[in-house]
Design a protein that fits this description.
The complex is a heterodimer of chains A (121) and B (110). By secondary structure, chain A is mainly beta. Helices cover 0% and strands 50% of the residues of chain A. Chain A has no helices and eleven strands. In chain A, strands 2, 4, 5, 6, 9, 10 and 11 form a seven-stranded mixed β-sheet that branches. Chain A has a four-stranded antiparallel β-sheet with strand order 1-3-8-7, with no helix packed on it. Chain B is mostly beta strands. Chain B has strands spanning 9-12, 18-23, 35-39, 46-49, 63-68, 71-76, 85-93, 98-101, 105-109. In chain B, a hairpin with a 2-residue loop joins strand 5 (63-68) and strand 6. The chains are: A mainly beta (121), B mainly beta (110).
Chain lengths: 121, 110
Amino acid sequence: QVQLQESGPGLVTPSETLSLTCNVSGASITTYYWSWIRQSPGKGLEWIANIYHGGNTNYNPSLKSRVSMSIDTSKNQFSLNLTSVTAADTAVYYCARDSSGSYYLGDFDIWGQGTMVTVSS
Amino acid sequence: QSVLTQPPSASGTPGQRVTISCSGVISNIGSNSVNWYQQLPGTAPKLLIYSSSQRPSGVPDRFSGSKSGASASLAISGLQSEDEADYYCAAWDDSLNGFVFGTGTEVTVL
């Protein structure tokens, strides 16, 4: 059974960097594309970025200047860094697996439970 | 930053058929397949339809998807109370080089 678990601080100070990790169990991280998706309170879903174990990444152009993703195959986990955060970055952050094997089909079949991140001083 | 447009709400009585539209442009729905997600309150989204019309294992056949040109739709036939949820469409956008989600539709079972 494939499971994803997000971890990271629930509170981040404005202008600082938000760092989250997604631990993958039950599947090899080298086989699929992996994404971060967020949802602001009471709002819709916003795709942030995806990554493949070879280092191929794609970023949401509206966040590209502040976002980076990395993958650690030895720990079977991947991470998100979002710099210079503001209150607008307050959201539930989900990690998700794309089962399609491609970067552009977006078959997000497995999701983490989500982690709430609040940006506030 | 939703690029795909959905009606904010839809409703029906148990047993009825409800259809949700998702409108995009040639660079997203017009060029790529569409996925649909169901989000029950307080939970992570669930993949409902992939490749515009395919159902993952375990998804009831009351859910069906279709695509025509730069628009897509999700139909729920035989509406049930447990179908009350938010529904989102999604597709890759060739111009943005990223995924875009729909604005979301809240389905209410009357």
